[in-house]
Amino acid sequence: TKGGYDFYMLKEIAEQPQAVADTLLSRFPDLSLDEVRKVVIIACGTAYHAGMIAGYAIEQWARIPCDVELASEFRYKDPILDASTLVIAISQSGETMDTLMALRHAKAQGARVLAICNTNGSTIPRESDAVLYTHGGPEIAVASTKAFLTQLVACYQVGLRLGAARGFSHADVTAALRAVPDQLRALLTRTDEIRELAYDLATARQVLFIGRHVGYPVALEGALKLKELAYMHAEGFAAGELKHGPIALIDEGTPVICVLPAPGDPLHGKVVSNIQEVRARGARTIVIAEEGDETIVPFADDVIRVPVTPALLAPLMTTVPMQILACEIAAARGHDVDQPRNLAKSVTVE
Ligand code: M6R
């Protein structure tokens, strides 16, 4: 049942603190990481966005090169893989055909495959060499929410383990991860402003999302949610790319959702200038910013606050307002939030 919520999606958004806490306790599989020279992540849709974020974390924490590939494209580039490659297949359902075919290709090339999966005993974990389960519980809504956050947590654990295998310790990150469930609980108690904003944005012709570094996949995820639920034109961009083309999309009143790094981050100033650039072209800037960051106030039409966490973990916070926004905009437009048109929960065809 929906447990008192209007939609499964809202219920699943609300379950995220517990899902993250449970996934933090997930049993790490018996898998030797000492010989890993390269990591390749394969996934689709939202799981691919989790993989993109994982790529930043793995390279930063373990200093191992990491490629992130759309599972549906993977085989066609004839990827270079061998026994020193760790392939990570991320899938909520464990049944996504594109991911499964990519996994089989990787195994045939001699790579070892680690699945990150939410569904016990499904095909992808069964065909992998090892599995790290996410503990999101059943996800009913077609739009993935708690699966995404738990995939991130599992990916972070892999990144930390890979780092540890190479002698790096990231005790600060481990401590910060432990604080995430409570921070998410706090974040989820103040969603009223997002609901009001959703009402405003429901009539927009298009909504753009910008971010940099891990904020870029978050922007892609925000746009994907809005496309699939609200059937609106939505695009995510790496903010630095704006001037190379997409800024031409902006006219008077275009909503631009901006993912701002923390004030101490080397990219903070750059994203602030990107926000000023779009605003100068008439954009309505909606900024997702860390609590206490006042620098953005003069350039933001709306500010959505998220709790303080290390840069690489920030997607655990910044994604949540986007999920709520997409859900509420879709509801305001009168759509079936849990069963959007043309989509299935699990895509079992190539
Ligand atoms: O079950 P999977 O994680 O393999 O599914 C992958 C995608 O089909 C899925 O994330 C899809 O993009 C969601 N509907 C997005 O909300």
TrEMBL record:
Residue ranges of coiled coil: none
Top-rank lineage group of the source organism: Bacteria
Residue ranges constituting the SIS domain according to the UniProt record: 20-168, 197-340
GO MF terms, alphabetically ordered: carbohydrate derivative binding; glutamine-fructose-6-phosphate transaminase (isomerizing) activity
Positions annotated as active site in the UniProt record: 345 (for fru-6p isomerization activity)
GO biological process: carbohydrate metabolic process; fructose 6-phosphate metabolic process; protein N-linked glycosylation; UDP-N-acetylglucosamine metabolic process
Enzyme Commission designation: 2.6.1.16
Keyword S-adenosyl-L-methionine set for record: no
Cellular component GO terms held in the UniProt record: cytosol
Keyword vocabulary terms for this entry: Aminotransferase, Cytoplasm, Glutamine amidotransferase, Repeat, Transferase
Subcellular location: Cytoplasm
Catalysed transformations (reactions): D-fructose 6-phosphate + L-glutamine = D-glucosamine 6-phosphate + L-glutamate
Top-level class of the enzyme under EC nomenclature: transferase
Record function comment: Catalyzes the first step in hexosamine metabolism, converting fructose-6P into glucosamine-6P using glutamine as a nitrogen source.
Subunit structure: Homodimer.
Record protein name field: Glutamine--fructose-6-phosphate aminotransferase [isomerizing]
Organism: Actinoplanes lutulentus
Gene: glmS
Whole sequence portion shown: 258 to 607 of 607
